[in-house]
Every structure is written in structure tokens, then in C-alpha cells.
Amino acid sequence: MEYNQSTIFGIYPVQEAVSSNIHIDKLFIQKGTVNPKIEAIVKDLEKKNSTISFVPFEKLDKLTRGNHQGIVAITSPISFHSLENIVETVLETKKQPLFIILDQISDVRNFGAILRTAECTGVDAVIIQKKGGAPVSGDTVKTSAGAIFKIPICKVDHIKDAIYYLQGSGIKTIGATEKTAEHIYNLELNQPVAIVMGSEDKGISRSVLNILDYKASLPLLGEINSLNVSVACGAFLYEIVRQRSL
Predict the structure, then answer these.
(1) Which of 75, 96, 130 is at the close of a domain?
(2) Can you tell me the distance from the alpha carbon of 81 to that of 90, in angstroms, rounded to the nearest whole number?
(3) Contact status, residue 112 vs residue 140, Cβ threshold 8 Å
(4) How sure is the predictor about 193, in pLDDT bands with cuts at 50, 70 and 90?
(5) CB of 214 within 8 A of CB of 220?
(6) How many CB atoms lie within 10 A of CB 61?
(7) Is residue 66's pLDDT more than 80?
(8) Distances (CA, A) of 93 to 99, 178, 197, 206, 221
(9) Labelling 123: which of 15, 144, 226, 234 has CA 20 to 30 A away?
């Protein structure tokens, strides 16, 4: 079965999609647009974890081949979950919760591969930021081998706020970074944990790295000084599985 993003444009088609509970992942509004109907759509979607961007007319023209009337919506094949609800539920049912936080992962193939490994290793939820990350698209579905439908994904406004919330809930946060000599194998992982993975080009942002409980790396024995982010994430997750199965 194929799962693809759909582009919906025009005030009435977008209104119909919203009223039919079709999940809108991203909403693009033309800058300077003043229209009560569009304002009502924006107000509704602000409550539903949709990403809303105000963009130039030219951006909307690139997204469509018709009269967009200043509004374009991109649908998602999944619905997103509330971080607070997921954390509360997981803490009530599990002694050793496991979460993944993705800090600006932009490649859909990496995103899908991480979701696939996450599902296989018992991750309870994957946390992403509303803006700047890889889209949830048909390509994500394919590379995740359908795992995207089996693992909760939480969209948050700010990664740092999500980290503070997890820490306040008793969950230790561990950043995957080559900027430490501490290997993941030396950390105690038989406790509630959230693994933070950074972007493909820059890694975890400095402001995020500074607030984490631990930083950990993987030993690199060759000449290349970094791993693909989805491969590194898999290595981290299976070390957690190994320690918890002893």
C-alpha cells in the first residue's frame, strides 16, 4: 500500500480537510493575508500540533499549480501524540521507559531508519521538533518499513522544553556525540532513559548538549570520525537492549 503526503490548497478544500479530521502536518499561509476564514483555520490547527508557517507568495506558488488563495496544507499519514500524555502513560506502565529525541534530523531516510530500529528495540516514543526536521512523508513510511504506524511520535515546539520535561519526570537524557571520551558502554542504562540524536551535519546543537544529563560516544577505530546518524542510533539502542537483557 502507498502512503503519500497530499497537498491541499484553497480556503474551502483546506476547511473541508480540517473539518473531516484529516491530519494537517504543515500549514503555509501567505504573509500579510487578512481573511477571517483563514484565521479560523489557523486557530483550529494551533490546537492540533500542526506546524504553521507564514511565507511569501512565491513559496505557495512553488507548492501548487493552481489558485491557492493564500493557503496550502500538507497532510500527514499519521497523527501525532501529546508528549505529556505519552510520558504519563509510559511511566505508569513501565519501570524502564525508553525515548528518542531527534534534534533536527533532516533526511527522511535517516528518520525512517531510526523509526524502524526504534520499533525493533522497544522505544516507547520518538520526539521531534515541529520545525526544521524531516517531514513525515511517504518516503518516511517506506524506509521505516511501516514502523511509523507502530510507535508514537510526539511533535514539540522546542526540544529543550521536552528535555526539561523528561528530566523533571525522572528520565535521564543522554546525548550521542563525538565530543566526549565517555563511551555509551560505560553508562548505566537500566533506568528510564531518553537518547538524543543530532542532525546529520552539525550533530546535537550546543544549547541542547549543555542541558543533558550525560554525553556518550561510540568508539571509532578507522579514519572516518563519524557514523551515519541512523547507524549510531541503532548502536546506542542495542547497547540499551543488551544491558537490560542481562
Answers:
(1) 75
(2) 13
(3) yes
(4) very high
(5) no
(6) 13
(7) no
(8) 14, 34, 25, 33, 40
(9) 226
